[in-house]
Amino acid sequence: MGxxxxxxxxxxxxxxxISREERQAATRRVxxxxxxxxxxxxxxxxxxxxxxxxxxxxxxxxxxxxxxxSDFVVLAATHLAHREAxxxxxxxxxxxxxxxxxxxxxxxxxxxxxxxxxxxxRLFSDTPxxxxxxxxxxxxxxxxxxxxxxxxxxxxxxxxxxxPMLKANAWHHRSDAISSVIVLLGIAGAQFGFPWxxxxxxxxxxxxxxxxxxxxxxxxxxxxxxxxxxxxxxxEIHDAxxxxxxxxxxxxxxxxxxxxxxxxxVHLQVNGRISVSEGHFISDQVMYRLHQRFxxxxxxxxxxxxxxxxxxxxxxxxxxxxxxIQQLQGRPDTQSLWHLIxxxxxxxxxxxxxxxxxxxxLPTESALANFKQACxxxxxxxxxxxxxxxxx
Length: 392
Fold this sequence. Notes:
Elements: E1 3-8, H1 20-52, H2 55-81, H3 94-123, H4 136-161, H5 164-191, H6 197-224, H7 231-242, E2 249-258, E3 261-269, H8 276-293, E4 297-305, H9 321-329, E5 341-349, E6 352-359, H10 365-376, E7 381-388
Helix pairs in contact: 1-2, 1-4, 2-3, 2-5, 3-5, 3-6, 4-5, 5-6
């Protein structure tokens, strides 16, 4: 009774779930807020830098403008990633969000490298930096507060939506806040006669930002190449399935991520003599309970096996139903029983075919004996049982 059962999970009423429309709207809302605030902050920093003669403040303002590019990446990815599945993308477009996360991670890494090189150049430059006016500290402080608030708002939404892309964008906002802290230290250091504090802090923080960018890139690229869940997560899923009624054994459990979803496929070994409908019922129960226990599991493929075929396939050489029936009907000693046969059930077990022959009426002893003899002469047949409808 082996066969693939492809199940698209529908969230039960008590499972925490967010619709595609709500997810897209929330992502668009947080991104638009970020774009607006970044525009305001960048203009304020650039104007403030010119007014206070702070080169660091001007540079940070142009740095904030670069965030607008990442915001547009998020908006575009959100629009594409939340489209319905289609013929060419039957699993949906969630990987677009993953790819956007890689892009944002690369942008974050670029920011880190830029800050590091700028700090290195300033630390070892022979050109003295002009001392900015003290009011520049207020501009830098305002930028820190605004960008940190934007980080917390974006990260809150990212956690609620389980969106790696928004988490990457949130960390981008945090890197901007850190960048503004560097600017603040540089301005303050210049006021107290320690101009070397600015480039030194810049290089240290750039290394931290580069580490965060590397984590984002590694996590997203591992998803793009279909890396499975962590061993402990897979084991938890395995144990949950093993406890379910009707499941005798489990093998070939495979998992992968797509955006905020987990995709899985598994082979379930069940009693080889149950009906197709009961096997389907068991797989339905496994799917719904898995989704209830693990809400991120959205697409589950279940293969029902009557025996463990992970390493060997003992029934692969056996004839199909049509081929077997043709063999039996070709035997003269079976002809006297065919008019009484209502149905024949086949069980492919341990390299043999077990037959259940359901009869509409009681046969003669000779007809029954001849049919059994014909079955015994076919080497790949196992047991043969006869059932009578009147006795059911």
